[in-house]
Amino acid sequence: MVLRFKFLRFKSAVTALALVTLGWTSLCVAQSSQSLPAPSPALGTISGTVVDQSGAVVTGASVKLTATDTDNAQSPSQEVLTGDNGQFSFANIVPGAFQLTITSLGFAPQTSTGTLAPGETHILPQIALTVAANISDVQVNLSRIEVAEAQIKDEERQRVFGIIPNFYVTYDPHPVSLTAKQKFELAWKTTVDPVTFGIVGAIAGVQQAQNTFSGYGQGAQGYGKRYGAGFADLAAGTFIGSAVLPSLLKQDPRYFYKGTGSKRSRILYAIANSVICKGDNGRWQPNYSNILGNLAAGGISNLYYPAQNRGAGLTFENAAIGVGATGAANLVEEFLMRKLTPNLPKHDQSGP
Questions:
Q1: pLDDT digits (tens, 9 = 90+) for 308-333
Q2: Among 303, 319, 168, which residue's Cα sits nearest to residue 228?
Q3: 111 within 8 A of 99, measured Cβ to Cβ
Q4: Cβ neighbours for 108, distance < 8 A, ≥ 6 positions apart
Q5: DSSP bridge pairs for 187
Q6: Is 170 exposed, middle or buried (0-12, 13-18, 19+ CB in 10 A)?
Q7: CA of 16: how far to CAs of 4, 8, 13, 20, 156, in Å?
Q8: What tens digit of pLDDT does each residue of 69-87 get?
Q9: How much is the CA Rg of the chain, to the nearest whole Å?
Q10: Mapping DSSP to helix (H, G, I), strand (E, B) and coil, where does residue 65 land?
Q11: Contacts 24+ apart (CB under 8 A), 37-42
C-alpha cells in the first residue's frame, strides 16, 4: 500500500509538472506569434512620360513623388529628372496613394495623383505640361547650371528644315550663361553631327571641281585631302572659337536673337555681333573669342594646306573670312533661320 501510494503521488506530480510545462509553452507560443511583425506589402514601380502641349517630350523636368496615404505618409519624398525620352521611373515604392509634382523651366507646375497596388507596375498616362502663363508660375528653385542645361537641350533640337544644326543661336528671352563644360559639349555635338560631315563633304566636292588648292591634286586622294582640311578647319574653328577661348575669356559663343526693332537696327545688331559678344556676366564686350579663334584656326591650317597656299596671308585671309562669315550668318539667323527652324521652344513661338 505504501509503495502504491508513493507511486500515485509521484504520477500526480509528474502529471502536474507536464500540465504546467504545456501551459507555459502555449503561452510563449501565443506571445511569440503576437510579437512577429506583419509581412511587408510587395513594393511597386511608378513610371510615366512628360510631354508639352504639342506632344514633344520634355527632358530634364523635375518629378517629385510624395506619399499621400496616411498609412505610409512617413515615407520620404523622392525626386528624379526626365530623360532624353521624357520618361521617369520610381522603383521599390511602398503601395498606397501618391502624388507627383512635375516642374520644368517655362512650364506651369503640374500634379498627378494615383494609388499604387502591392507589387504593381503603375504606368501613368502622358503628363502634358502647359506653358507658364506668367513669371510667377515659373519654378525658380533650379540652379543656373540646370537652367542653362535646359536651354541647351532646346537649342540642340533647333534644326533648319528639321535637318541642319542651328545650335549656336538662342531665342530664349532670358538666356543663362554656359559653363565651360557646356561650351565644350555644344562644340562637340556640332562638330560630330552627321549633317556636319555631309556639308564638309559637299564643300570638298566643290573645291575638287574647281581645283581649289591644286596642290592636293585630283582623284580620291585629292578629295580626301580637301575633305580632311575642311573638317580640320571646322573643328579647329569651332573648338577654339566656341569652347576654348570662350571658357578662358568667359564669353558666350552663341548668337542672341533680337527679333524686335527696326530692320536697320536688327541689321546693325547682327553685323556687330561678329566683333562683339556677351560675356558670362551678361555685359557686351569685344568678341575676342571669335576674332582670335579665327586667327588661331588660320594659323593651324598652315600645317596641312599645300605649300603654295601657306603663310601669314593664309592665316589672316582665313581669319577675315571667318569674321565676315560670322556676320553673314548672323544676318541669316536674324531674318531667316527662325522661320525655317521647327521645334522651337514654346515661349519662342509667338515672337516675330
A1: 878 787 778 777 887 888 889 999 99
A2: 303
A3: yes
A4: 129, 130, 131, 132, 133, 137
A5: none
A6: buried
A7: 18, 12, 5, 6, 87
A8: 766 555 678 889 898 788 9
A9: 35
A10: strand
A11: 41/94, 41/95, 41/118, 41/119, 42/95, 42/118, 42/119
CA 166 to chain centre: 17
DSSP-derived secondary structure letter, 302: T
Which cell is 56 given?
514633344
Task: Determine whether 277 is exposed, middle or buried from the number of CB atoms within 10 Å of its CB (0-12, 13-18, 19+).
Answer: buried
Model pTM score: 0.58
CA distance 267 to 248: 29
* DSSP-based helix, strand, coil % in the chain, nearest 5: 50, 20, 35
Q: Tell the residue number behind the cell numbers 570638298, with chain if given.
A: 204
Residue at grid coordinates 528644315: 161
Measured at the alpha carbon of residue 85, what is the angle toward residues 235 and 256, in degrees to the nearest 5?
45
Grid coordinates belonging to 140: 525658380
- The C-alpha angle with vertex 236 and arms to 171 and 336, in degrees rounded to 5, equals 30
Residue 318: all three cell numbers together: 582665313
Listed as ranges, residues in the chain with pLDDT below 70 are 1-40, 70-75, 133-143, 343, 345-352
